[in-house]
Amino acid sequence: MSAATTRSRTPDRLCAEAVDLAREAAEEAAAPGVVGEHVEVVAEGDRVVTHFFECKEPGYRGWRWAVTVTRASRAKLVTLDETVLLPGPDALLAPEWVPWSERLRPGDLGPGDLLPTEADDLRLEPGYSGEDAPPPNSAVSEEMAEHLDVEDAEITSRTPSRGAIASVAEELGMRRARVLSRYGLHVAADRWEEAFGAKTPMAQAAPATCASCAFLMPLSGSLKQAFGVCANEFSPADGHVVSLAYGCGGHSEAAVMPKPPRPAAPVLDSMGADEFRLRPARDSGSVPPETDGASEDLGHS
Description:
Helices cover 20% and strands 17% of the residues.
């Protein structure tokens, strides 16, 4: 170890003895009563020493006031360098700062919130081919226009002007300036597969997959080969994008209920009274035994 290194690690005697000067500087920067006991002295270099004092400020547990003092070569006067509040080994620190784009979680976006996307977002790509600016060799390019302006020439061309491509795309129903890129599709597919895929506990216990379910609404584009939207209101995946390998107990063909027995149609019978004669016909000549010929009045015996 060299002599210079040994001197740099050994605190200067005069600077190390300037504890009162360091305390006054700390109390001036903080407040009386906030600066605690003297903790240690650390040599920062030749004739440069830092004094550490406890911090009794509420909310700064484990922090220390650091006061650096120094002196010139061959001088006996110690001067103040800087005063700062630094965290100690057991200090209570705030968590590491994370950019807002990495702190966002699903469900954080509320009504009125705006979520900006970067211009070079890897999940997006231009929604239509071509650039608004004409190619360099076009008759309406800036280079060609400047060249013809010098020659006092007029440009007459039927080439679409700047922004015309976007107007045509909007007229054809392609008004989206950017669409999902292949990377964006893969990221979305991985996220949906994790939430409603074949490896979920619900799918493992399902009697069949969504590929054979009548409640599955297929998607369009390349994702229709692997995903669809569930339309069963009693399913836990109702309204969510599900994998075709996903499944649940609400499968349309899992347990088909038999039709209830239909009762036979009621039989209607006509009801009527049979005719029964109370007295014999006059031309028959016979007399009923009940009356014995005594009276024709049925009310008397």
